[in-house]
Amino acid sequence: MALISLSELEARLGRSLTAAESSSFTLLNTALQAMVEKQIGSSLEAVSPSTRYYDGGTQHIAIDPCTDITSISYASDDYVADPAWEDDDFTAEPINKTLKTMIRTRYGKSYKAMNNIAVTAKFSIAGDVNTQNIVKSAMLEALVSEIGNTDNVSKESIEGYSVEYLSEQTKDSLAVIKFLFPSI
After folding, report:
1. Which helix (H) or strand (E) holds 137?
2. 11 burial class (0-12, 13-18, 19+ CB within 10 angstroms)?
3. 43 pairs with which residues across the strands?
4. I need a labelling partner for 28 at 20 to 30 A (CA). Which of 48, 83, 150, 169 fits?
């Protein structure tokens, strides 16, 4: 299921899509959502809790955007979690926001190792309605600028390898996402 529906795009445009636009909508919408999810490192839709691993050795551990952190623990080299950290061992930050992007250890640096911090959470922005609405609006504007507009496609092709770029208008529409997630 996609974050944006055909009816939402039509409402934003103020008209129904043509047959050609409707046929390209699914592809454009899926590609745009995949691009944004890859950029921010989290899903745009509701997900089940999963575990991701991060490098230790610092007091501030940057994590992928998530909600509902259920456990944080050290992990061994074969990714077996040691006992979970207690709630007073860390803070999930930013404290006053639903969407968390950092773990701060309360008592100095965490143990230094690669992929030794196991974080179990819902790696999705779906739990933060405000952030999800901002991202959705930016994606709708990007779709509006791309749907049915064939003169803004830039393409580079060299010996069978080709790359297609977003239009400047689409890039401008998506700039708000980089503002929300400055580490991307």
Report:
1. helix 129-146
2. exposed
3. 124
4. 48
